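Researcher: Please predict.
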Amino acid sequence: MIDPRILREDPDRVRASQERRGASSDVVDRALSADSARRAAIADFEAKRAEQKQMGKKVAQAKGEEKQQLLAEVKDLAAAVKEADAAQGVAEEEWKKALKAIPNLADDAPAGGEDDFVLIEKVGKPRDFEAEGFEPRDHVELGKLLGAIDLERGAKVSGSRFYFLTGVGAELEFALINLAMEQAREAGFTQVIAPALVRPEAMEGTGFLDQVDDGVYKIEDDDLYLVGTSEVPMAAYHSDEILDADTLPRRYAAFSSCFRKEAGSAGKDTKGIIRVHQFEKVEMFVYTTVEESYAEHQRLLEWEKSFLDKLELAYQVIDVAAGDLGPSALRKFDCEAWIPTQGKYRELTSASNCTTFQARRLNIRERTETGTTPVATLNGTLTAITRAIVAVLETHQQADGSVRVPKALQKWLGREVLEPIQK
């Protein structure tokens, strides 16, 4: 959640952030009202509690009928204190609920919605297949020719938006994971295998609990959630901990399976493996100071670009508009690779700076010489496997249906070309 001091001292800044997101500022007014009610409830409780203490001193000194009368008053006052304490608790919960309804401050993100992003740069040039004399096949057709993707049996076994990766498809996944983990290790990241099931506290702490109905699978009997990204378990990894400042930044590269309902994507990307219910991903996650988080955000973006360069893809980098940010992110950069058969750029990676938003919810602090303060958290996709496979197959295909293997992947795949098993 945001820093309460900002809400109290500069509510117009919070309202401006809501406007940039295209969201109502009513949450700001409700939070301010809840804060006033909470402060009033605390003052009322403390006043009654002070009166109760004073009355206790009088009772100790009183005798006879005066003492009996004071004891009766003490009894009434004790009930009033108990009631005020309960009211204070309710007001505190209402305040926390109202504060959590406010997303992170999108001060630096472009204003607007999904289409209002700002283009930062374009890297590489999309292939001109027409000039090369052949029409590119999409990844579905290539997947069949190579024996790499089996959508029919995926649907038979599990339903729509499921798939099997077979043969070189499975090999390509492992190659992408190995390449990503090699890069992460060389950059000083600690490698992690993260759980794909988490408790509600982790979902709430990262700001994903509100997405349960639309995007997140819940295991009702066990009160657990299937994660849509290992950002969730990695954010909660240090929950309720105080980290020494000299151990920051702490950088993790976490592999996990990811699960998404894609409930709001009816009719979108129904063909192939661009938008699926289950996929694997390597996610970078960083704990650092707020002051350093902005430079770290740029470093995450550079690591993502480096990985896409190794895959020899044409891509663009965008500054995502405020209205397209998740609640936790202050700012987000996406790398979108060119998909030839779609004739457009599609998101492959994203890097977000969440500053202290998640750390405040999860109670993660750094210890400094002057005390403790919330840390900043950042996350960045190193590779989301299915989309990376789509981009590699379509970008590097050849006229006969074979696919040239990017040099960086060749040592993991043990070949320079993926040959069709079907002609």
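Model: The chain has a mean pLDDT of 93.
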